[in-house]
Automatic annotation (TrEMBL):
Record-annotated AtuA-like ferredoxin-fold domain positions: 2-100
Protein name per UniProt: AtuA-like ferredoxin-fold domain-containing protein
Annotated source species: Nocardiopsis endophytica
């Protein structure tokens, strides 16, 4: 098991109560492995109560990246949230803490 930050990096964006998280492997050869290991269901479970509803995953095969669309509660926006850090970048850091079954 490895944490995603060992094999990939992430970027985030947030608009209203939707956060998008990209996952980009450092080594392009790991892209197919991440496609198998990092499912939208696992991402939703890992992010816990930060996500409300179904996480949708988009494969970006041309650039070797995954994009996760994560819905949040109506009041959980950057400008309205009572969370310490409501920005998507904190969620991307949380995503990179996820453990997956692969060897870097």
């Amino acid at each position: 098991m490895v944490r995603l930050y060992e094999v990939a990096h992430s970027r985030a964006g947030d608009k209203g109560n939707v956060t998008t998280l990209s996952l980009i492997p450092y080594d392009p050869a790991l892209y197919p492995v991440l496609c198998e290991a990092v499912t939208p269901e696992e991402v939703g479970r890992h992010l816990g109560d930060r996500v409300v509803g179904e996480v949708v995953r988009h494969r970006m095969d041309g650039v070797g990246a995954l994009l996760f669309v994560c819905p949040r509660a109506p009041g959980d926006t950057v400008t309205e949230s009572l969370r310490l850090d409501a920005h998507g970048k904190s969620m991307s850091s949380a995503l990179l803490e996820m453990e997956v079954p692969l060897d870097p």
